[in-house]
Amino acid sequence: MTLLRQFRALPNLLTLLRLLSIPLLIVAILRRHEEVALLIFVVAGATDAVDGRLARRLNQSTRLGQYLDPIADKLMLSALFLVTTSVGLVPLYVTVLVFARDLGILLISILLFFTGTMRNFKPSVIGKANTLLQIFTMLLVLITAIRDTTSLAALRHVMLVLIAWLAPLSAAQYAWVVLHRIAREPLQSL
Predict the structure, then answer these.
(1) What domain range includes position 3?
(2) Is 57 exposed, middle or buried (CB count within 10 Å of its CB: 0-12, 13-18, 19+)?
(3) Given 2, 29, 107, 145, which residue has the most CB atoms within 10 angstroms?
(4) CA angle 60, 61, 67 (to 5 degrees)
(5) Residue pLDDT, tens place only, 53-88
(6) How many CB atoms lie within 10 A of CB 26?
(7) 101 shares a domain with 45
């Protein structure tokens, strides 16, 4: 399938819509239009939930979609962490830990790609739990920016602390898996 046809596939159009919504989300939060930001985030989440199912149902799974979907997800979460930290909704230490984890995984992935060691570098259970927790936490952060109650604030705090613990734990698990795989599969030459 040509690149142009891959771009025109409905699931990929939904993913592109999610990518294009990121700047709008950032502006909405920076201008303190939390209701608009929440709406954008929920709609983006709905497109994320639908695009994979549509790709399978319409037989429109593409290589572009395999790369674009996780990139869109990571960019949206990264942008949310940065902008919510900049306006004081998320503590800086949580965002630093999230970015340190993601940077570590990115560096490991690049190393594995260029050494040809591991071609299938799939998310771990802890990694998936971490991402899911980040999504629900960002949803809660946006909700509490609109209506902050004592119980919601307490739940938000607990979820942010969990992210702060899970991020390095997830990174450590990825590193452990990679080190054990490399020990079993010697590095190929560049």
Answers:
(1) 1-86
(2) exposed
(3) 29
(4) 135
(5) 877 787 777 777 777 888 888 899 999 999 999 999
(6) 19
(7) no
Q: Which residues contact 114 (CB under 8 A, 6 or more apart)?
A: 190
DSSP, res 61: -
Give the containing element (helix H, strand E) for 138. helix 125-146
Q: Are 97 and 164 in contact (CB under 8 A)?
A: yes
3-class DSSP state of 34: helix
Q: Give me the residue label for tokens 């502006």.
A: 27
Q: How many domains does the chain have?
A: 2
**Cα–Cα dist 72/67, whole Å:** 9
Residue 138's alpha-carbon distances to 4, 26, 41, 134, 142, in angstroms, are: 33, 13, 9, 6, 6
Write down the pTM of the prediction. Answer: 0.84
Domain co-membership, 69 together with 154: no
